[in-house]
Amino acid sequence: MAREESLGFIETRGFIGAVEAADAMAKAAMVEIIRVHKVGSARIAVICEGSVASCQAAVEAGVAAAERAGCTVLVSNVIPRPDEGTSDLVDLMLDEMRARKSARRSARRRKGGGGEEGGGGSEPTEPTAPTAPAAPAPAPAKAEKKAKKPGRKAGK
């Protein structure tokens, strides 16, 4: 059985292009942006869901907006009414992305929490004021001035 909604995809190189694409997609047609995902190496994927015509219009508008922003659009695609297996695969991939992102956040909290009492990690911590760098140590005092060279008189 096929999914009722279609899926539209745009992958850009660069954050600003992805934001412009997502904004244009949402404004151009009745679609829902279901995911914006950092793929890696400055590649960002924007995924929308809606009717076939809406997804096609949204993807076209998103590609144009990303290119106007000076961003490279690597690939774009619309899958009209994806098959249940394809739809399940996309849902599975999105769930895995969310799980990895959640695991990274948890690991950062654990790493940054470092044994503080009551550190549940739910509230942001106050930034600490930067400390001034320590003053450089004074140069070691010279034991003696250089001895006068023999044969020279003072004042010359």
CATH architecture of the domain at 6-109: 2-Layer Sandwich
CATH superfamily of the domain at 6-109: BMC (bacterial microcompartment) domain
* Overall 3D form: flat
Radius of gyration: 30 Å
**Portion in helices:** 25-40%
Distance between the termini: 105 Å
Note poorly predicted spans. 114-129
Structural class: alpha+beta
Highest-level CATH class of the domain at 6-109: Alpha Beta
The CATH topology of the domain at 6-109 is given as Alpha-Beta Plaits
- Count of β-strands: 4
How much is the average pLDDT?
80
- Percentage of residues in DSSP E strands: 15-25%
Helix-strand string: EHEEHEH
The main sheet comes to:
4 strands, antiparallel
Q: Give, in spatial order, the strands making up the sheet with the most strands.
A: 2-3-1-4
Number of helices: 3
Account of the protein in words:
With 156 residues, the protein is α+β, with helices and mostly antiparallel strands. The protein has a domain at 6-109: Alpha-Beta Plaits. The chain has three helices and four strands. Strands 2-3-1-4 form a four-stranded antiparallel beta sheet, covered by helices on one side. The model is unreliable at 114-129 (pLDDT under 50).
